[in-house]
From TrEMBL:
UniProt organism field: Gopherus evgoodei (Goodes thornscrub tortoise)
Highest rank taxon of the organism: Eukaryota
Signal peptide segment: none
One Gene Ontology cellular component annotation held by this UniProt entry: membrane
Official protein name in the record: 6-phosphofructokinase type C
Cofactor: Mg(2+)
């Protein structure tokens, strides 16, 4: 697409104070820098609609530097306020006058359904407001149309049309941090904790945090418990204590209700537990803690993508184009009609008010409350859990094992991966054995080994003889944590599949789920562990930049893991606001390195004093981290100095992120259901016979769906030499990262290629596109 010669004027604001999320600044930054990139004048409207009505110093033109160093800041630097006056035509008349005085006819609105509805009404009234202002005929013709694009900022994730709203993931981080902290003391004192989280009309935060921390019970508005829930809950808590579980966690959404539409409060739950069970019970109300703090990596990337997409939508807007809202569908940024989404959101609330809860869940369309209901028991057989160098959360193992037990299976775990498999290191796992694994990094108490195909081949005869006595389907909850082993585990599964011709014992259902920080598994957009590593990188970059506060201008060169896969470097650079990210998938030479040094030199002559450069560890065998550090140090003399950091294995440790816990939970539960289905189809005479391609699968996430894919069909999608998929969706975000990072004083015609690429991959419907 070509860039028009006239200036676009884009205003960024949020309105409703209830919708401020901790990651709005990333969206603000993206809109400002993308707007400047396309030669637009960009204005802040401070204090939301109130600032638009009041005008004056509340509407200020901003520059590239205005949004420097705000990515890691919670809330929004432009403020937010309620505005009763804007709800009246007189107030909107004042707002229109203030915009016309500055020639503003494009608005980017960040808020909830109330803010977006107000913006759409303002747009519909625009022509009439201009006539009422008695502007000159020329002015009326020039400013006759007002373009609106919305982004949703709400920690409750209660807006229809998007998988995730800006701020939700950060709120989940705050909740899980509190739960993890509470669990340490609760286990020591055998206590029950009742946690109240936000969610007056939407139970997303409560449900997902309950899944992520392994809560005993959860209450959400959309799923009122049946009559007699009090006794059922107390029986469940007692059973868990009888299994030697030292703590109980109950999560209550603030809007939770019972079947008679009466509130279920955290205090009511506490009193019930104390009176019926006598457990030492405490209440923790998280309140506004959930809305503060540093934004998560997921939220920063989401908000950045939404901001860029919003500017592109304004560039392409016509008088006949309805106002749109930028949303997330799987890993795709999409544009949807604003008022359709608003109306559907309001329909959800209407259904809730009318107690049509199933209809409300269907309309919301994003999460299924059946996730926390009991699964019916299926076939009674044995399952074998084979971990291979796992980095993801213990949830993947714990949930698989417990769901398997719930469905009537006898569960076995292999200690020490394929080598342990060959050596007979197998033990039966009970419900109690996996207690405390939820929220742990690594693989719980199961030891692991990096799998080599040679080891697998050597293990085949012994493993087959073991399976002869215990005909168990195989669940491999990992593709290995390190890039060097990631696809070797996948190859190991291929070896097991190929061994079926020689060993009948391997004719059992086999399923693998991806778990690697490198996110380099073919057949899945995401891997368990990658989001946790990405947050570690982002947090570390924040601290490194903060460490240099008050010192002279400085550039940091940071090496990330990933092997030949540049996912961590690229996405970490986008989340941390890096100036450059060098990756294997995009070749670079000394000329590009020199150009980046010159760019940083120019940037450091402004008020910006920090630079950040990320390098994927295997991006280039000659341009090493040391080489880049020395180059920048030498060329930057007199302007900035350099520091080097190699993050190393710290990216593989720590508590798993909410995304990884939730992802691990979902894929594990789905894997058990798949195996149970295969068992029903193939179980014969005490043994399992399954010798079809679709009985050896990888369970991966593609866009928003979890899909089982035969491993033999994935061979052509993998580059086994460099251990990366041949096609990687996140590479389409490279131009976005560069546009937001490149300091710009004027538009360079040579930059149009980046804009062309972004626009080409900018979808108008949920079915296409990749930005």
């Amino acid at each position: 697409m070509s860039v028009s010669s006239h200036h676009f004027l884009i205003t960024v604001y949020s309105n409703n104070i209830l919708t401020i999320s901790t990651s709005m600044n990333a969206a603000v930054r993206a809109v400002v820098r993308m707007g400047i990139y396309v030669e637009a004048k960009v204005y802040f409207i401070y204090e939301g609609y109130q600032g638009m009505v009041d005008g004056g110093d509340n509407i200020v033109e901003v520059s590239w530097e205005s949004v420097s160093s705000i990515l890691q800041v919670g809330g929004t630097v432009i403020g937010s306020a309620r505005c009763k006056e804007f709800r009246t035509r007189e107030g909107r008349l004042k707002a229109a006058f203030n915009l016309i005085q500055r020639g503003i006819t494009n608005l980017c609105v960040i808020g909830g359904d109330g803010s977006l509805t107000g913006a759409n009404l303002f747009r519909e009234e625009w022509s009439g407001l201009l006539e009422e202002l008695a502007q000159s005929e020329e002015a009326v013709k020039k400013y006759v149309y007002l373009n609106i694009v919305g982004m949703v900022g709400s920690i409750d994730n209660d807006f229809c049309g998007t998988d995730m709203t800006i701020g939700t993931d950060s709120a989940l981080h705050r909740i899980i941090e509190v739960v993890d902290a509470i669990m340490t003391t609760a286990q020591s004192h055998q206590r029950t904790f009742v946690l109240e989280v936000m969610g007056r009309h939407c139970g997303y935060l409560a449900l997902v945090s309950a899944l992520a921390c392994g809560a005993d019970w959860v209450f959400i508005p959309e799923y009122p418990p049946e009559e007699g829930w009090e006794d059922q809950m107390c029986v469940k808590l007692s059973e868990n204590r009888a299994r030697k579980k030292r703590l109980n966690i109950i999560i209550v959404a603030e809007g939770a209700i019972d079947s008679h539409n009466k509130p279920i409060t955290s205090e009511k739950v506490k009193d019930l537990v104390v009176q019926q069970l006598g457990f030492d019970t405490r209440v923790t109300i998280l309140g506004h803690v959930q809305r503060g703090g540093t934004p998560s990596a997921f939220d920063r990337i989401l908000a950045s993508r939404m901001g860029v997409e919003a500017v592109l939508a304004l560039l392409e807007a016509t008088p006949d184009t309805p106002a749109c809202v930028v949303s997330l569908s799987g890993n795709q940024a999409v544009r949807l009609p604003l008022m359709e989404c608003v109306q559907m959101t309001q329909e959800v609330q209407k259904a809730m008010d009318e107690r049509k809860f199933c209809e409300a869940v269907r309309l919301r369309g994003r999460y299924d409350t059946s996730n926390h209901t009991h699964l019916s028991a299926l076939v009674d057989t044995e399952l074998l859990c084979l971990p291979v160098n796992v980095v993801g959360p213990g949830d993947a193992h714990a949930l698989f094992l417990r769901v398997g037990i719930t469905e009537g299976h006898n569960m076995f775990a292999v200690i020490d991966g394929f080598e342990g498999f060959a050596n007979g290191q197998i033990k039966e796992i009970s419900w109690r054995d996996v207690g405390g694994w939820t929220g742990q990094g690594g693989s719980g108490s199961l030891l692991t080994q990096c799998v080599m195909c040679a080891v697998v081949k050597m293990a085949l005869p012994v493993a087959s003889s073991m399976l002869y006595f215990h005909p168990c389907p195989l669940f491999i909850p990992s593709n290995c944590s390190h890039h060097a082993c990631a696809q070797q585990a996948y190859l190991g599964l291929l070896e097991l599949s190929a061994a079926r011709e020689k060993y009948d014992e391997f004719c059992v259902p086999m399923v693998m789920v991806p778990a690697t920080v490198s996110n380099n598994v073919p057949g899945s957009d995401f891997s368990i562990g990658a989001d946790t590593a990405l947050n570690t990188i982002t947090d570390t970059c924040d601290r490194i930049k903060q460490s240099a506060s008050g010192t002279k201008r400085r550039v940091f060169i940071i090496e990330t893991m990933g092997g030949y896969c540049g996912y961590l470097a690229n996405m970490g650079g986008l989340a941390a606001g890096a100036d450059a990210a060098y990756i294997f998938e995009e070749k670079f030479d000394i000329r590009e390195l020199q150009a980046n040094v010159e760019h940083l030199t120019e940037k450091m002559k402004t008020s910006i004093q920090r630079g950040l450069v990320l390098r994927n560890e295997n991006s280039n065998e000659n341009y090493t981290t040391d080489f880049i550090y020395q180059l920048y140090s030498e060329e930057g003399k007199g302007v900035f100095d350099c520091r080097k950091n190699v993050l190393g294995h710290m990216q593989q440790g720590g508590a798993p992120s909410p995304f990884d816990r939730n992802f691990g939970t979902k894929v594990s539960a789905k894997a058990v259901q798949w195996i149970s289905k295969k068992l029903r189809e193939t179980y014969r005479r005490g043994k399992v016979f399954a010798n079809t391609e679709d009985s050896v699968c990888l369970l991966g996430m593609r866009r928003r769906n979890l899909i089982f894919q035969p491993v033999v069909e994935l061979k052509d999608q993998a580059d086994f030499v460099h251990r990366i998929p041949k096609e990687q969706w996140w590479l389409k975000l490279r131009p976005l990262m560069k546009i937001l990072a490149k300091y710009k004083t004027s538009y360079d015609v040579s930059d149009s290629g980046q804009l062309e690429h972004v626009a080409r991959h900018s979808p108008k419907e949920a079915e296409t596109g990749a930005i």
